[in-house]
Amino acid sequence: MHAELIINVTPWETRVALLENGSVVEFHVERVAERGYVGNIYKGRVVRVLPGMQAAFVNIGLERTAFLYVTDVYDHLPEFEFMLGRSEDEENYLAHFAAKEEHPLHYTQPSFRIEDLLHEGQEILVQVAKDPLGSKGARVTSHISLPGRHLVLMPTMNHMGISRRIEDESERKRLKEIIDSLRPNGFGFIARTASEGATTENIQAEMEFLIHLWTNIQKRAESLHCPSLVYEDLDITLRVVRDLFTCDVQRLVVDSRPAHERILAFIETFALHLQPSVELYEHSMPIFDAFGIEVELSKALRKKVWLKSGGYILIETTEALIAIDVNTGKYIGKRYLEDTILKTNLEAAKEIAYQLRLRNMGGLIIIDFIDMENAANREYVFNTLKE
Predict the structure, then answer these.
(1) pLDDT of residue 334
(2) For residue 117, which of 14, 210, 271, 310 sits 20 to 30 Å off, Cα-Cα?
(3) What pLDDT, on the 0 to 100 scale, is given for residue 153?
(4) CA 37 to CA 106: how far, in whole Å?
(5) Separation in Å, CA 226 to CA 83, 85, 162, 244
(6) Are strands 365-368 and 322-327 parallel, antiparallel or unpaired?
(7) Beta strands in 80-164 (DSSP E)
(8) CA angle 353, 357, 363 (to 5 degrees)
(9) Mapping DSSP to helix (H, G, I), strand (E, B) and coil, where does residue 326 land?
(10) Mean pLDDT, each 10-residue run in order, the chain (387 residues)
(11) Sheet strands (E) in the chain
(12) Residues 6 or more apart in contact with residue 212 via CB below 8 angstroms
């Protein structure tokens, strides 16, 4: 597979396309006037607790209050309260677990309710997990995560994990042993895909950097009023370099000299060997035209996406969900209706997976495939979509 990262920078927005064998598989955009909030950390105040929904509204200083589910606050409460101070009741609550050598983190399902954990007026440190959409505020979590090149630090969870994309068992074991030998007690880490082959020195240096970053975030949170922005994630240019520019990507091409220089300086600190793969695009033709990206993006903006067989899918987006309808369209098949429907559904399943990744869609997704009588065929389509 030949993979490339193409970055287009203008005064008003930055666009990034990940190509695999010449086709766009991921597209990201960040507008200067509408920069997202995902990854940012805020010192917020609980303004309303909703026992019926097991959630709370948190004022983090944005136009609309953020939404916090009980599962996004439960595990982290003790560590957070230690940082910002606890009431006497909360001290007693934590003493209960200390006496039994237990901790909320050990439970997969919350055994406490939101009203037992939060109260109106309480200050809480949260990270944005999902940007505001329409009339909905941001979705936040108190399970803070700080990603680096090789590792993700989870300062509130005593957990260690290895990326599933690292399939070699000996490498997984090696990384686990390195991280276990280095990580301080109480800090969680996940080894990212880019950590495959990383030296002990690389991992230790990044671990120390991330812990130092978390320490600074804690200190800053203590000194700021509420609500306040405590930490802002990297902009899209450096973020995609950190998250997507792996050894599997043959080259990165950017059409801005300042951005090119920033990228080179950024990777110098953790992946000097990638610098030769970074190219500055200086031709007169727009970079997205030169790589055929604009044509694919124009198709991605359409609600109707045609399939090669003549069928098509319709993609409708609302605040509540994404609805996708599959139709045979111009495809009438050769002989049997069930075979025609199966072929259309199989082709649609692959295209839907591609379109969801390309359009960066998530949340509740409902797909209305064409009805099939054969149960084995339905299972075949379902498994194709999963793959």
Answers:
(1) 56
(2) 210
(3) 95
(4) 30
(5) 15, 14, 36, 34
(6) parallel
(7) 123-130, 139-141, 146-147, 151-154, 160-162
(8) 90
(9) strand
(10) 93 94 89 88 96 94 94 58 36 33 39 85 94 89 92 89 90 94 91 90 92 94 95 92 87 96 88 88 95 85 84 86 86 68 89 85 88 87 87
(11) 3-9, 13-20, 23-31, 41-50, 55-59, 66-69, 123-130, 139-141, 146-147, 151-154, 160-162, 188-191, 228-231, 249-254, 278-280, 304-306, 312-317, 322-327, 365-368
(12) none
| Torsion angle defined by CA atoms of residues 246, 156, 113 and 136, in that order, rounded to the nearest 10 degrees | -40
Helix 88-99 vs helix 77-84: angle between axes, to the nearest 10 degrees? 140
Q: Is residue 227 reached through a cis peptide bond, with omega within 30 degrees of 0 on the bond before it?
A: yes
The single-letter DSSP state of residue 12 is S
DSSP-derived secondary structure for 166-201: ---HHHHHHHHHHHHHHSPTT-EEEE-GGGTT--HH
- Give 184's contacts (C-beta < 8 A, 6+ positions apart): 211
229: left (phi over 0), alpha (psi -120 to 50) or beta: beta
Residue length of the chain: 387
Q: Is 41 helix (H, G, I), strand (E, B) or coil?
A: strand
Closest CA to 23 of 351, 370, 365: 351
Tokens coding 51: 């026992």
- The residue type found at 202 is N
8 Å CB contact between 322 and 361: yes
Q: Which residue has the tokens 């993609």?
A: 315
For tokens 């329409």, the residue is 134
Instruction: Determine the distance from the C-alpha atom of residue 315 to the mean position of all C-alpha atoms in its chain, rounded to a whole number.
Output: 22
Pick from 36, 43, 1, 33: nearest CA to 20: 1
Model confidence, pTM: 0.71
Whole-number pLDDT of residue 78: 44
Torsion angle in degrees (nearest 10) through CA of 217, 222, 225, 231: 0
Residue 367: which residues within 8 A CB-CB, separation 6 or more? Answer: 324, 326, 352, 385
List of domains in the chain: 3-35+235-294 (3.30.420.60), 41-141 (2.40.50.140), 146-217 (3.30.230.10), 303-386 (no CATH)
Measured CA to CA, the distance from residue 355 to residue 27 in angstroms comes to 10
